[in-house]
Amino acid sequence: RAFTMPSTFKSTIEEWYDPLIATLKTTTGIPSIFSPSVYRALVLETDKYLEGKQKLLLCTASWASPILALQNFKHYTDIHIVDVQEPVLKTCEEVYEVLNDNDFFDKPYELKTFCTPSEKMVGKVDNNYDKIFFCPPYFDLELYGSSDEQSTDLYKTYEEWLDGYWRGTVNAGSEVLNEDGIFSFVIGANIRGYDMGEDMLKIAEEKFTLLDTIRINPVAEPTKDANKVEKYE
Q: At residue 80, what are phi and psi to the nearest 5 degrees?
């Protein structure tokens, strides 16, 4: 669980941090790491389009990164998380309780979790969210065996995945968002030869109007063949 957020101990392993994380991401089967510091910065960036406190829906749990990223946040009344992996949602709840276990301060927001595919979330989650923010799965880049409803189990080809998972999630998001709500996501531009970022943006624009894009450049990965393709999200 320490690797939910490795940058919490970055200062103690500064010399080895980037090679360590790059190696973990490219040579093992564990999930890639969405740093809560980056998560926080991006969520703040999307806040500029909305006034007042918000009700936030996260369509993936991102290995509990959002709970760490948004601790002590005062921008949200509620944060709801959708994911297909029950153990990850349970970890989110446990981290939330640990961070807010005190008798002096009110909890910064109310947390709810829903174990359901995001494309099937209508009728299971609320229908008055101000913002959706999440990092969708990168098709079959990372495969996990703890759920029968992982998107790559339900949709076998890239085209089926784009239509079933992604278009389904976009459509569901448009139903549960308020009229002026924000739909925001983080995705790699080029994954295994697919122009994934562009493909997903085109589908998102079927329901939403593009307001802004932010380019995220990763650290150089000192691993074999890692830098042959320009990588950004």
A: -115, 140
